[in-house]
Amino acid sequence: MEATDASKLVDLVSNVYAFYRQDFSKFAASVWINAMQPFDLAAVADAMNRHCVNPDNGQFMPKPADIVRMLQGSTQDSGLVAWSKVDAAVRQCGTYVSVVFDDPVIHRVILDMGGWTLVGGKDEKEWPFIGKEFVNRYRGYKMRSETPDYPPVLIGISDAQNGRQGFRKTEPVLIGNAEQARRVMLSGTDRPMISFTQMATGDAPLMLASTQMEEA
Questions:
Q1: Is residue 84 located within the same domain as residue 32?
Q2: Which residue range(s) make up the domain with 21?
Q3: pLDDT tens digits, 129-163
Q4: Residue 133 main-chain phi, psi, to 5 deg
């Protein structure tokens, strides 16, 4: 959603609240703006209309979670869709090639689980458990409505070897929507996801001494 759409969204939601004879506060407006940020305003308006005429729950005023669920499904649904892409990529492309998915969260989850070659190298007996772990991790990021830092490309075995030997890396395979995958690649980062700092010599004793003085 564009920044200029915020006022239009507030008008839309306030009209929905009026339709359900509910008061609309500034706090509610801020919650709706933050929750709908990832979505197109036209899609949000369409989801609102579909909720209002839904025979199962249209009698209740929609909450942000209701609209998000309509726009992208539950986190379980999203996780299963994402895993199906990973499963297809492993089976059809393999882990020798580098890949870019059209979903940045997939990149981060695969990285958290050890990387493309490690995840894709699991055998069939382990595969169902790998899938379950992936979906749970994916849902965790989706529940927080965040796009974490992620690597632009998931490196395959061939490119990993080429990199160590100083050879040029190959072009990655784009998985899913090609244009979206290119945007994912351009927005990724090569910096470490977790930083490690070596504590200077003498830091620990000084901290211990400081603690002992305070206790005294």
A1: no
A2: 3-71
A3: 999 999 999 988 887 767 889 999 999 999 888 87
A4: -65, -45
